């Protein structure tokens, strides 16, 4: 039995919960968010409880339905935690970020160009394999991610045991088991969001390595060129993959130099975080 | 030397001149030729990696559960044979609970708002010496319209929306979409239209908003234009009352052969009449579903031609719904939202009805002028002028059709001793209503045609406004109004002509 749900902050042994970082410090701001310190993007497959997580964090009551495509527009809300104000952006639920539909494009563009401080990926613990496809794609774009391993109660009911520490090691980003319906695990979730947002936790995200050799060679060639033109770009590998896949939106971003802006911001942010 | 090697040389051996953005695109273009099926290879790699990581993290202890409840339910509700009967049964149960459950609170609200508050308001008006026309517009017009809409609309919506939301939370709706998908595809529309149609059964305005889940503009327009054929809440009361009065009356008077009817015969007759009228209402609702398919089919082959887009629909796991939270959110998000919009239209409509019945031109009220004007058209399609005028007033909210019909009938037939005066909307017992309508020249044919016309006519102004907002086009909003209206006149005209040809009365 390796799955552990921190029900109370005090029972959360070994994860360095200080009193200041408990859900008691959470204050939900609904839609009244004027100035925020950090932007958190909320991604996930459809029907993983993403909207429930959104509602639990913001205190809004956006209707959550048990069918895909429920979130028809991008919803935004806010919350305050440990003295910092967060803006939470609920992206449409998608299975991938390959931009083959409007929903996928909206989610992809926000994670790429919106440059959220944290991307929170909600994952259905009972369908881990399918959900990890999206997680791996998010991790190709950004290293500032937290995985919310939701529906842990259902996983347990199905007799599944999930080793979230091993998962976190393999993915290279924090993984927090939760039951969003009853807000179990939210203390740790909030703490991890805060640590990734302010740079205390630095992810070393998993990058796909087992491509066929021809693919790998092509990618590394292109990555070298991209890094030469856009120094400091955090996700050159992903850009290379998208260009090789014939993604017109990314090609346009390259030729217009929009990626250059991304790189410049990334460099200046890194400088600000580590002076 | 392959292109890849060339590209290598360019980056490694010739650092000058510096690379440009276009060089990157050029290299990418060149490399793409080198690799076959890049997209598939990438996807396969991704899936393999996800499977590997998931496999390391997840352990399934010894026995796997032999019985999968989700799969067992799915086997029934999406089966070839049982899916449609189960769907009909669930819908009938939802509507039956809505119809029978709404009766009591509706009557309580009506006896409070119309039986108690209404006379009290008149006393107050008389007490402070309000002129008769002002108290008429305010109390007999605006207040009564509001009271009627609240007492008729609020209870069914407060029951229907939570029930519907519970089905949704449970996970049944994707199965409905799954079942109807092939039918919609044959009609040239999107499978997700099943979901927006289901929403339309509650409220067409909500149904139109819910078409946002359809990505393709062409298929979304089809879903918007045909949403009106899903019989909405505002029209159920009309259907139920007319079915009870005219169709239920078709039940044989004395089922048993004995010359004197027994108590059992009366009970049997009441049960039979209830069943027949319920079936008539369900029949109208099913006709609406059929028209949805038929009109979608016609549109996708004429004005809105194009490719049918495929979509992958995941059948999510069944989940026990959270009852209390569902009731809360559905009442806040849907019930009160829709009620508020209905009220903003009902209040001015109430004033207009009262004024039209009390302002006289050449000794005849405006309402009567209108009735006389529209009567020839009404008779042609088996309706009458009163009904058409009522539908003019009911453009803001379909709920006020029946009270307006009764008020205008009193006015036209000059019956005395019923009602509460010109321009006052009221409600009477079933027997009184039937007697009044028969005096107004109504027959079984009028009843049937009213039920048909109630299904097939222009959407209410709230829905039209929503369509305009969603499409951003006056043209499509107008089409959404005129298309069903024309269809309604055609259908009622043919029913009437056939009826008369076959020698039916009326």
Description:
With 275 residues, chain A is of the alpha/beta class. Chain A is built from ten helices and eight strands. Chain A has helices spanning 50-58, 102-113, 128-141, 152-157, 164-171, 186-197, 213-229, 236-244, 248-256, 258-273; strands spanning 27-30, 38-44, 75-81, 84-90, 118-124, 145-150, 161-162, 175-177. In chain A, strands 1-3-4-2-5-6-8 form a seven-stranded mixed sheet, with helices on both faces. In chain A, α7 crosses α8 (236-244). The longest helix of chain A has 17 residues, at 213-229. Chain A is globular. The termini of chain A are far apart. The relative contact order of chain A is 0.14. Mean pLDDT of chain A is 77; it is low at 1-21, 66-72 and 266-275. Helix content of chain B is 72%, strand content 1%. In chain B, β2 and β3 (364-365) form a beta hairpin. Chain B starts with a helix and ends in a 5-residue tail after the last helix. Chain B has a two-stranded antiparallel ribbon with strand order 2-3. The longest helix of chain B is centred in the first third of the chain and has 45 residues, at 83-127. Mean pLDDT of chain B is 79; it is low at 1-15. Chain B is mainly α. β7 (161-162) of chain A pairs antiparallel with β1 (58-59) of chain B, so a sheet runs across the interface.
List the helices and strands and how they pair.
The complex is a heterodimer of chains A (about 280) and B (about 500).
Chain A: E1 27-30, E2 38-44, H1 50-58, E3 75-81, E4 84-90, H2 102-113, E5 118-124, H3 128-141, E6 145-150, H4 152-157, E7 161-162, H5 164-171, E8 175-177, H6 186-197, H7 213-229, H8 236-244, H9 248-256, H10 258-273
Parallel strand pairs in A: 2-4, 2-5, 5-6, 6-8
Antiparallel strand pairs in A: 1-3, 3-4
Chain B: H1 3-12, H2 21-34, H3 38-57, E1 58-59, H4 69-77, H5 83-127, H6 132-170, H7 173-186, H8 193-202, H9 204-210, H10 217-226, H11 236-247, H12 263-301, H13 323-358, E2 360-361, E3 364-365, H14 366-380, H15 385-393, H16 401-413, H17 430-439, H18 444-455, H19 461-471, H20 474-501
Antiparallel strand pairs in B: 2-3
Helix pairs in contact in B: 5-6, 6-13, 7-8, 8-9, 9-19, 10-12, 10-20, 11-12, 11-18, 14-15, 15-16, 16-17, 18-20, 19-20
């Amino acid at each position: 039995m390796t799955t552990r749900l921190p029900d109370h902050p005090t029972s959360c042994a070994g994860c360095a919960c200080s009193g200041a970082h408990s859900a008691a410090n959470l204050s939900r701001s609904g839609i009244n968010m004027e100035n925020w310190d950090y932007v958190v993007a909320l991604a996930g497959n459809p029907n993983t409880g993403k909207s429930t997580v959104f509602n639990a964090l913001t205190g809004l009551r956006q209707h959550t339905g048990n069918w895909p495509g429920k979130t028809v527009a991008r919803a935004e809300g806010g919350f305050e935690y440990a003295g910092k104000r967060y803006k939470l952006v609920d992206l449409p639920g998608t299975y991938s970020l390959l931009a083959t539909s409007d929903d996928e494009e909206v989610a992809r563009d926000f994670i790429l160009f919106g440059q959220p401080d944290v991307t929170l990926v909600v994952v259905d613990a009972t369908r881990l394999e399918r959900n990890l496809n999206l997680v791996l794609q998010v991790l190709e774009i950004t290293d500032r991610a937290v995985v919310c391993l939701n529906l842990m109660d259902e996983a347990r009911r199905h007799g599944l045991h999930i080793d979230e520490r091993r998962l976190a090691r393999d993915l290279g980003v924090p993984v927090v088991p939760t039951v969003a319906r009853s807000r179990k695990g939210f203390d740790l979730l909030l703490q991890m969001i805060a640590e990734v947002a302010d740079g205390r936790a630095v992810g070393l995200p998993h990058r796909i390595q087992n491509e066929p050799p021809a693919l790998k060679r092509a990618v590394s060639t292109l990555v070298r060129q991209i890094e030469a033109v856009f120094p400091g770009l955090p996700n050159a590998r992903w850009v290379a993959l998208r260009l090789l896949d014939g993604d017109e939106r990314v090609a346009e971003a390259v030729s217009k130099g929009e990626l250059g802006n991304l790189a410049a911001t990334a460099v200046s942010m890194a400088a600000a975080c580590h002076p | 030397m392959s292109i890849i090697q060339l590209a290598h040389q360019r980056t490694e051996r010739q650092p000058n001149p510096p690379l440009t953005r276009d060089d990157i695109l050029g290299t990418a273009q060149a490399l793409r030729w080198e690799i076959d099926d890049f997209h598939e290879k990438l996807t396969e790699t991704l899936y393999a990696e996800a499977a590997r990581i998931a496999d390391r993290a997840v352990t399934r202890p010894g026995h796997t559960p032999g019985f999968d409840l989700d799969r067992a339910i799915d086997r029934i509700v999406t089966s070839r044979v049982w899916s449609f009967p189960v769907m009909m049964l669930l819908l009938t149960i939802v509507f039956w609970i809505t119809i029978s459950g709404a009766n009591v609170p509706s009557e309580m609200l009506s006896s409070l708002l119309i039986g108690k508050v209404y006379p009290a308001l008149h006393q107050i008006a008389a007490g402070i010496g309000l002129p008769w026309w002002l108290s008429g517009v305010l109390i007999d017009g605006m207040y009564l319209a509001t009271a009627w809409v609240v007492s008729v609309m609020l209870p069914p919506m407060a029951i229907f929306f939570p029930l519907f939301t519970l089905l949704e939370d449970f996970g049944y709706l994707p199965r409905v979409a799954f079942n109807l998908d092939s039918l919609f595809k044959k009609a040239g529309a999107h499978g997700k239209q099943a979901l927006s149609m289901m929403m339309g059964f509650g409220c067409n305005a909500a149904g139109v908003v819910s078409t946002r889940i359809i990505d393709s503009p062409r298929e979304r327009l089809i879903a918007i234009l045909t949403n009106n054929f899903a019989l909405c809440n505002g029209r159920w009361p009309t259907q139920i009352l007319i079915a009870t009065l005219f169709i239920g009356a078709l039940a044989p008077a004395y089922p048993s052969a004995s010359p004197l009817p027994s108590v059992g015969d009366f009970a049997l007759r009441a049960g039979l009449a209830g069943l027949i009228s319920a079936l008539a209402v369900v029949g109208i609702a099913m006709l609406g579903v059929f028209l949805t398919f038929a009109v979608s089919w016609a549109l996708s082959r004429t004005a809105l031609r194009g490719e049918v887009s495929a979509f992958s629909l995941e059948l999510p796991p069944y989940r026990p719904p959270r009852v209390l939270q569902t009731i809360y959110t559905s009442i806040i998000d849907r019930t009160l939202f829709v009620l508020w919009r209905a009220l903003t239209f009902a209040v001015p409509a109430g004033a207009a009805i009262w004024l039209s019945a009390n302002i006289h031109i050449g000794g005849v009220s405006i309402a009567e002028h209108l009735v006389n004007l529209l009567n020839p058209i009404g008779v042609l399609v088996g309706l009458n002028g009163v009904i058409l005028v009522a539908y003019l007033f009911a453009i803001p909210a379909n709920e006020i059709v029946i009270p307006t019909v009764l008020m205008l009938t009193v006015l036209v037939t000059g019956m005395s001793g019923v009602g509460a005066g010109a321009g006052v909307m009221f409600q009477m017992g079933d027997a009184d209503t039937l007697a009044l309508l028969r005096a107004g020249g109504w027959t079984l044919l009028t009843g049937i045609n009213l039920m048909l016309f109630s299904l097939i006519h222009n959407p209410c102004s709230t829905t039209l406004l929503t369509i305009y907002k969603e499409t951003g086009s006056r043209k499509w909003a107008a089409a959404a109004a005129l298309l069903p209206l024309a269809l309604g006149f055609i259908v009622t005209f043919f029913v009437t002509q056939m009826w008369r040809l076959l020698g039916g009365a009326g």
